[in-house]
Amino acid sequence: MNAVIAHRGYWKTEKEKNIKIAFERAFDNGFGVETDLRDIKGEIVISHNMPQGGEMSFEELLKLLDGRDLTLALNIKADGMADEIKRLLDQYKVSNYFTFDMSIPEMVYQHKTGLKVFTGLSDIIPNPILLDKAEGVWLDCFNSDWFGEKEVKEILNQGKKVCIVSPDLHKREYKNVWERYKNVSGIMICTDYPNEAKEYFNGKN
Fold first, then answer.
1. How far is 115 from 23, CA to CA, in rounded Å?
2. Can you tell me the distance from the alpha carbon of 30 to that of 69, in angstroms, rounded to the nearest whole number?
3. What number of CA atoms fall less than 13 Å from residue 149's CA on the CB side?
């Protein structure tokens, strides 16, 4: 079984990205979610860009999850939030999560704090930072579809988890690329098309 991560929630229109309805739809359909964390006025909120006020809070997202064992992929958009992120995750007893995309100093601190950190590996970051200390790898493809089954298995064989960024997040064709690693089990895939991914990777295609 492979886990499907709905990118900014399971949205059906662009305006639904990173808002309550997209997260509710994702969780109700059994999908994990990827989302963006920033802070404003002492509160951690869901926002890809700089928050202006009125954004959904991270705590509200955890309440929506409501104890379900679905993966949260937390894209860290600002430094200095680690202690509060960990406090909230502990408060709501959320253990199926990982943080990623933070600065190097923040990654070091988050690891020391005990957060589950994924390092990045991509066509522009060929040498993942702190791989030995990371829980897993956020495997990305900014400019080219450079990896396949061999590269994914190499990471898994090091005892690391893998979350693959589907090329649809970079506005590229994805179905032919999925073919390259569809036979690898135990991976996560982050996509804007969670229903298609669920059918494709979990034996219903």
1. 22
2. 9
3. 7
- Measuring CA to CA, which residue among 63, 8, 58, 1 is closest to residue 32? 8
Q: Residue written as tokens 């109700």?
A: 28
Neighbours of 74 (CB within 10 A): 28
Distance between CA atoms of residues 85 and 59, nearest Å: 9
Question: CA-to-CA distance for 26 and 135, rounded, in angstroms?
Answer: 24
pLDDT digits (tens, 9 = 90+) for 91-114: 999 999 999 999 999 999 999 999
pLDDT in tens, 122-139: 999 999 999 999 999 999
Taking CA 187 as the corner, what is the angle to CA 64 and CA 101, rounded to the nearest 5 degrees? 65
What's the gap between Cα 74 and its chain centre? 6
Query: Mutual orientation of helices 58-65 and 20-28 as an angle, nearest 10°?
Result: 20
pTM for this structure?
Answer: 0.97
* Interatomic CA distance for residues 194 and 7, integer angstroms: 8
Q: Which domains does the chain have, with CATH numbers?
A: 3-201 (3.20.20.190)
Q: Which amino acid is at 72?
A: L
